[in-house]
Design a protein that fits this description.
Low-confidence stretches: none
Largest sheet: 5 strands, parallel
Number of helices: 8
Bound molecules: BIS(adenosine)-5'-pentaphosphate
Radius of gyration: 17 Å
Shape: globular
């Protein structure tokens, strides 16, 4: 399985990528997670990315493209990948096209999750993640805020610092200005499949799986 998940901040890309990773045993490559890990470890990349991410801006293309080249050419991605959060600018899309051509990869399914802005703000304001297992939750599904229902870690929930309302608004603006043109680029090439992400999580997964099954017959 080789999939690119597109969509605005908070639309559910990470949630679906984790489900697909478990179902199909292919790596979930999230540029956001890679950057957050670098911030946590205070690497030079992390120190550079921290302020940019806190503002809701995009990390420079050359840095992100370098990261993706390393990951996609690694052993880990030989049999597939789920790309989450990349590409999100036209130069990133062009760099990915070039790389996939070099690697002779043609069977990539591109999925665009759609939702309303109101729902996005609601989802991001209510998102919590677990420090230990990295699973993502909505406040409405957490019964005991002191214990993670997946890994049982205690007091491990945290709120991302880019999930503050003013930063969410900035991220949505950046999405409209910089990432939407990328989607037009994919759509013009007839490469984009639209999935309604307002549906419940399991129904969104089913729709992706249906699209994947169809693509296996039609994409070569
Ligand atoms: P990144 O981590 O990629 O953030 P994002 O794209 O803004 O997406 P999110 O992780 O916020 O949301 P999501 O779509 O994964 O939603 P989730 O599944 O969590 O990027 C962060 C930052 O890193 C960027 O701002 C930028 O600075 C930098 N960066 C990353 N990639 C970059 C790149 N390529 N170039 C430059 N800079 C880059 O779900 C959200 C909530 O909704 C959760 O609570 C979840 O439980 C809930 N939910 C999910 N699905 C459903 C559903 N169907 N129904 C109800 N609730 C749902």
């Amino acid at each position: 399985m080789r999939i690119i998940l597109f969509g605005s901040p908070g639309v559910g890309k990470g949630t679906q990528a984790k489900i697909l990773q478990a179902k199909y045993n292919v790596p979930h490559i999230s540029t956001g997670d890679i950057l957050r890990e670098a911030v946590k470890k205070q690497t030079p990349l992390g120190m550079k990315a921290h302020e940019i991410m806190s503002r809701g801006d995009l990390v420079p293309d050359d840095i992100i493209i370098g990261i993706i080249k390393d990951v996609l050419t690694s052993e880990e991605c030989q049999n597939g990948f789920i790309l989450d959060g990349f590409p999100r600018t036209l130069p990133q899309a062009a760099a990915l096209d070039k790389l996939l051509k070099e690697l002779e990869i043609t069977d990539v399914l591109s999925i665009y999750f759609t939702a309303t802005e109101e729902e996005i703000v609601n989802r991001l304001s209510n998102r919590r993640a677990c420090h230990e297992c990295n699973n993502i939750f909505s406040l409405s599904e957490i019964k005991d805020l002191t214990k993670c229902p997946v890994c049982n870690a205690e007091n491990s929930f945290y709120e991302r610092n880019d999930d503050k309302v003013e930063v969410i608004k900035k991220r949505l603006q950046v999405f409209n200005d910089s990432t939407k043109p990328t989607l037009d680029y994919y759509e013009e090439q007839g490469k984009l499949i639209f999935v309604n992400a307002l549906k419940p999580v399991d129904e969104v997964t089913e729709d992706i799986m249906k699209a994947f099954d169809i693509s296996r017959v039609t994409v070569h």
